[in-house]
Write the structure tokens for this entry.
Amino acid sequence: MNIPTPSGQTSLRALRALVREHSVLAALEVFADELGSIFRFTMPGFNPVMLVGPEAARFVLVSDRQNLRWRNDSDPVTLLLRHGVLVEDGEPHDSLRRAMTPALHKQMLTHYAADMLRCTDSVTARWVPGSAPDMLVEMRRIALLILTDTLFKVDFSSDIGRMWNAVLKTLAYISPGMWILWRNAPRPGYSKALQQMDDYLYQIIRHRKQVLGSTDDLLGHLIDMGMDDDLIRDQLLTMLIAGHDTSTALLSWTLYLLGKHPDSLHQVQAELDAVLGSQPPTAETVIELRYLEQVIEESLRLYPPIHLGSRVAAEDLDFQGHTIPSGTRVMYSIYLTHRMKQHWDEPARFNPERFSAEGSRPRQPYTYLPFGGGPRNCIGAAFGRIEAKLVLARILQQFDLALLPKPVYAHMGATLEPRPGVWMQVMPRASQQSP
Ligand code: HEM
């Protein structure tokens, strides 16, 4: 069977949706509504197959995963991360993954909790009462500090200012753009930033080896295993990018959604007051923050930071009677799967209750997959979840936030981001001020 492609009329409807909502995702929703769980869009130089829904996710992530490669040597992600765990396949991937797992194991997360709070406090301490900082920027600061502090044991606070543009430029380098359609297009303007990132990472590795010596963190593990500096740099950059940009998106979308739904915000704060009082959250006490957890899950459903996964068919594949030829780029859409009418009531509505013990209906596996699935699921899922709970608990325990009424759209960058930003007025909470 041929893979469905959009008709002229469908493409026109998709184009209208794109213009109306300022997001390619709206166009993809039109395609999925009209064409179903597999379709192909044809643009000059770019003809990926898009898969949607739980069966499709299982196909890509589990049943046919051996025949789908991650690595694509002409992609900027591969050019940037070289031999990072994210872009390797087969045995090289599996052995890197085994090497990284201990530093992200659940037991380690309890040790990271205090560092996560300290990094959060160091950023919020600069908030001027009554001002309205952009939470997309503030959450990036927090996520960068946390990632480098916990996994590299590096205090990034004195470098964050001079490295900020290099980080953003590195993210822009791997974000979707003209390179998708025009593979060998010249891409000027990135080399200085990419070099600055490399210099920084190699300097951290040298400093650790020559001055600090062995430590029990991700960087320490990689050095102890005898990896060479280039391979270590690839893993550090992978973790820095994959581990902070996703959390930035998750935290800023969640604050945005809470700003849009003040009743939920008040419910979160009531729970914080009841469970924590004025005590800082810990890895143990956040387990009791059930409503906050529901809010985070609903945020991940509506705006999954990684909204799609991309692979290349290593041989001819068959999905539900459709032949996907070898060499085709195959994408599975987490965003569209999370919004399927067949699986979610009122999918566009923010409703944290759908994740409560009472409110949730039995869900087919792979209808909810913000962290992917199968053996290549997110290695940092537990880290990301506890980080989100600790950071949000700490902020909302201490501050009242009010969203400024500025339009926000879902931008497909390296992750799905609330753009142009999330400006929120911050006020210390009366109940948290000393008498
Ligand atoms: C907080 C929100 C996060 C979300 C929503 C998220 C989402 C995902 C998803 C969907 C995948 C699978 C992509 C695919 O199938 O191609 C993935 C993989 C990955 N994530 Fe995350 N992630 C998050 C946080 C983190 C953190 C904190 C780290 C590191 C500390 C991390 C590191 C990675 C790595 C290295 C992979 C590749 C794993 C492999 O290929 O074996 N992520 N993530």
Summary: The domain at 37-432 is CATH 1.10.630.10 (Cytochrome p450). The radius of gyration is 22 Å. Residues 66 and 90 are 8 Å apart (CA to CA).
